[in-house]
Amino acid sequence: MVHKDITKENKQSSTIWGGRFNSKPSAIMEEINSSISFDKRLFHEDIIASIAHAQMLAKQNIISKGEGLKIINGLKRIYKEIEKGKFNFKTELEDIHMNIESRLKEIIGDTAGKLHTARSRNDQVSTDLRLWVRNAISILDKELKELQKRLIVLAERNTSTIMPGYTHLQNAQPITFGHHLLAYVEMFGRDRSRLIDCSKRLNINPLGSAALAGTAFPIDRQSTTKELNFTSPTTNSIDAVSDRDFVIEFLSISAITSIHISRLSEEIVIWCSDQFNFIKLSDKFSTGSSIMPQKRNPDAAELARGKSGRIIGSLMSILVVLKGLPLSYSKDLQEDKEGLFDSFDSLYICIKACIGMISDVTINKEKMLEASKHGYTTATDLADWLVKELKIPFRKSHEISGRIVKLAEKNNCLLHELPLDSFKSIEKKINNNVFKVLSVENSVKSKISYGGTSPKEVLKQIKNAKRRFLK
Ligand code: ARG
Q: Which are the catalytic amino acids?
């Protein structure tokens, strides 16, 4: 960033509050104060909120109908200018609110000055930001739903695909890949419900709170509330201009979601390693190496994993900004936006990347099946069999099964490769039927408890997930 020469007097800028001041702000003052480089992103929300405000002022005869119309038409023109990239944003005009007001003055003259009647940038920015977050939530909700859909489609194709289930990243028990994928569908479902919850709570209208105390003008707060699709006006003007809980909530939900994205990404990275070789990402979602010709790197997954760092950072940042901040508005609050925007952008691209990776991934079913047989993954099935068939208490059967595993390990073979005599050498009542429960296929088939890993149950939960999440 190039800093302006602070030794030079800033003679050009004229501020909106110029009346009380003898000299103009220094270049450094302007630079530290300015938020236009990032809050221009609020232009849509700023203009629709200003239109609603102008309409209300005219309806309440605080300004004339003609003035209201003039203001609204001017604002609409500015909207088009910004959309077309023809608007000249100026740092010395500090933020989006003053940039728009100043341009309005250029277009319609002094009437522009009436728009700011009965409002302040304090209620204005809070309104804009609520509208922006509300929209961001609906975009993320839509993308998360799409990700859930792709996971469910993949799960549907893999209800009987067997893989090792892990605890401590050690082979634990055989599971179905569809079942594993549905775990992520649950996580993103919770994220979506948190987003909707946040959306409900933030959807109240600060307009009319003015700087902090409310206003003496006979405004109609219900009218702007209705116009902007808020559920009600805020009920305390001091809180309305100082509250950024909705930013904290949005960022904490984003952080949680990014953790889920990161966990999924980590598994993708592991699964496409040479050691695992469970999946292959498509060419569209793999990258090469500049030196090693053979490489196929899962960069998208790595970045989706890594970007959680900055999202969590933004959450920490807004928490610290608000900690100990006295009521009501302080300029510290301007620090709410960059982390918010960056987190949304980061999360959005991560979700999109996951959708892309999941959509055309190739599943190496043979490799998954083979891996599921290693690590004595049916030792628990063996212990369960001893309980069911031989009426041995579970603690005891656990020990017997453990000793059989030790024996298999000593003979360097899998459980089902041990001869019956070896089983009998540890527990003489064991019979041939035991071999039925030692296969990974029968192991997964047997897990029919609600929410369990059997193909039948997974199919049921897929139907359930479609009803819960994709309607
Ligand atoms: N750019 C400011 C912000 O983002 C707008 C509110 C300014 N209010 C004030 N009293 N200076 O918070």
A: 168, 289
Picking from 69, 2, 78, the residue whose alpha carbon sits closest to that of residue 40 is 78
Cβ of 340 closer than 6 Å to ligand 1, yes or no, is no
Residue 160, token pair as written in the block: 């009987």
> What confidence tens digit (pLDDT) does each residue in 2-55 have?
555 544 544 444 567 778 888 888 999 999 999 999 999 999 999 999 999 999
- Whether omega for the bond prior to residue 35 falls within 30 degrees of 0, making it cis, is no
Q: What residue owns the CA closest to ligand 1's atom 1?
A: 95
Domain 372-470 listed as CATH 1.10.40.30: yes
**CA 125 – ligand 1 centroid, Å:** 7
The pairs formed by 47-50 with CB atoms below 8 angstroms and a separation of 24 or more are 47/75, 47/76, 47/78, 47/79, 47/100, 48/131, 48/228, 49/124, 49/127, 49/128, 49/131, 49/207, 49/224, 49/228, 50/75, 50/100, 50/115, 50/124
Our answer on whether the CB atom of 258 is closer than 6 Å to any ligand 1 atom is no
Taking CA atoms only, the protein residue closest to ligand 1 atom 2 is 334
3-class secondary-structure state, position 455: helix
Question: Whose Cα sits closest to atom 4 in ligand 1?
Answer: 334
Calculate how far, in angstroms, residue 98's C-alpha sits from the geometric centre of ligand 1: 10
Give the amino acid at 274: D
Looking at domain 28-117, does it have CATH number 1.10.275.10? yes
Where are the domains positioned within the chain? 28-117, 122-165+176-217+235-370, 372-470
Tell me if 333 CB under 6 Å of ligand 1: yes
- Residues 406-444: tens digit of each pLDDT: 999 999 999 999 999 999 999 999 999 999 999 999 999
Would you report the helix, strand and coil content of the chain in percent, each value rounded to 5?
65, 5, 30
Which CATH architecture does the domain made up of 122-165+176-217+235-370 adopt? Up-down Bundle (1.20)
**Burial state string for 295-309 with b = 16 or more CB within 10 A and e = fewer than 16:** eeebbbbeebbebbe
Whole-structure pTM value: 0.93
Q: How far is the CA of 282 from the centre of ligand 1 (A)?
A: 47
